[in-house]
Amino acid sequence: MEISASGSAIYLVDPLAAQRLREHAISTDRSSRVFRELWSLNGRTYTAYRSLLGNPASLRSSSAHAPHAGELSETRLNMSSNTRKYTFHGVKLICDESRVAVTIVRFANIRNDLLAFGNLDGDLWVIRFPPEDDISMAADSGSSAPSSSTTKPYRRSGLGPLVSKMPKAHVRAISSLDWSFDNSQLMSVGEDGMLCIWDAGGGQFPGTVQLKCQVSGAFQKDLKVSAVEVSNHHIFAGDSAGFIHILRCEMQGGQLHRLLWQMKLSVLRAQKAPVIHLEFVPFCRATDTPILLSNSRDGTVSLVKVQEKMNRLEIHSWCNMPDTSRDIRAAVCPLSVIQDAPRIVMGAEDSSVYILHLAPGAGQKANIVNTLKGHRAPVAAVSFAFDESLLSSGDSAGTLIVWRRSSNV
């Protein structure tokens, strides 16, 4: 395959070399990985772009600027995706604003300085982190951050995170949070059947409730919707019997006209148990398609292959986690699905946070990649920032911890 790099220079690259060069390009800037994932041009997607670069060809160059074989071999060694590790070097924030269990936490899209979390009583907070440069400049000027690990002294000094509590809207636990594409709005869904849209006001918090509506949760008698996720063209709904439904969005005049049910897929190992969480990922290298993370109340964690053009769902891998006395929601490690095998992060009853690798196949045991210990209560909610620089986790005692990931991985 011919690739014109600089006008007259034309390179013919084999698939392995192209793969290593791509890995090197995206490893220099974490944010670029997500932007490339969302890349589109004339209706084409990142999948088509990646396939274009992956066509087989021999390695040679018609230009004097081509890399030498020895340099390329050395680069292959240093850029192996199998050496990726999830190591952390401290804590950015410990927040104890909530007095009851944290049930959900969510970072904003393509940002690591903004996150929201909700609790068992239906309370909602938004945390905004200042730029690292601002903290450094304050430290250089003689200001010192207080020794307390909670957020309140930081708010008084103006040097640290700003924690804002939103007006009361839910009367029961918040079960789902999602940001709009530009992070101007935040959606919260509670177990009271209430859906609220919050206006971020360009990042000014607390926001205001723009819309309240009752969520209808029944496909049929005695069957209720227990989890919802969306993509550009579909809505995925988990129900109380352990099935995932895929519904195609039909548009008319630029507005949603109706939802067309396509199929359902069981993600349970045996008995009926509600699907408690769904997370859509636009692209996964292991499947070459979008994937859907699902976890159920019986401890089943699944990665589902989504074939959007065919309106089909297919289980890629699943494992059985230990039974728990509470709903524990997992999350996808966002960069792992782009560069290597999918990994997930999940809390546990033993107060730990686990980063796990799910091997392809049915009922495979999850391999532990790393374990984080710092909570004093069972961890029920986790969320990675888009570039994996920060990981947030909330426990049943109401404590939220934001972990810093090592930058040299």
UniProtKB/TrEMBL annotation:
GO cellular component terms listed in the entry, alphabetical order: nucleus
Keywords on record: Repeat, WD repeat
Bias (Low complexity) ranges: 138-149
Gene Ontology MF term list: promoter-specific chromatin binding
WD repeats: 167-199, 372-409
Record bears the keyword Lyase: no
Pfam families membership: WD40
PANTHER family: WD REPEAT PROTEIN 26-RELATED (PTHR22838), WD REPEAT-CONTAINING PROTEIN 13 (PTHR22838:SF4)
Descriptive protein name: Anaphase-promoting complex subunit 4 WD40 domain-containing protein
